[in-house]
Request: fold
Amino acid sequence: MITACHSSFWAPAILGLLLCLPAAAEEPRATPPESAAPAAPAGPVPDKGPLGTVGNWIDESIDRLGTGLKATQKTIDDLTAPTRDAVQSAAGVAKDAAKAVTRLPRVGFASGSERCPIAPNGAPDCQAASDALCKANGFESGRSLDTRTEAYCPPPQIKLSGPLPKLTECIFVTRAICR
Reply:
C-alpha cells in the first residue's frame, strides 16, 4: 500500500499520504450553519500536526484559487461588456434594416415589344407602353429603359375601304424597369 502512494513529486506524495492514512487520524470538523457568516477564530488555533498544516494549506489554496477565478471572471466581464453591447446594438440595426428591405417594393425588368400609342397632342405616349409591358410581366407600372423606332408603322386596324393611312414612324418600348 505504501508503494501505491509513492510518487516523484511532492504535492501528489502529500495528497497520497493523506489518502493512505486512516481516517481516524483526522479530527472531525464542525460545519458552520449556512446562514451564519464565517467568523474569525476567537483564539489561537490548536496545532494539528503536519497533517493539519497540510490540510490548512490545501484549504487556503482552494480559497485563493476560488477568489482569483471570481476576480478573473469579473475582469473578463468588465472588458467584454462594451463589445457585447455593441454586438447587440448591431444585431438590432441589422434586424431593422432587414425589415426595411422587405418593405421595399418589388422591382424587376421586363423585355418585350409594346407600341407607344399616340397621345392627343400627337406625340407618342411611351409611359402607357411601359406600364402595359410591365403589367404583362406581372408588375404594376414601370419606366422605359430602351426603345426601338421603325420607319414604317402598320396601322393598328387594317381598313378595307377608304384612303390608305399615312405612313409614319412608330416607337416601341423594348425594355422597362418595373415595380
Summary: The first helix runs from residue 2 to 5.
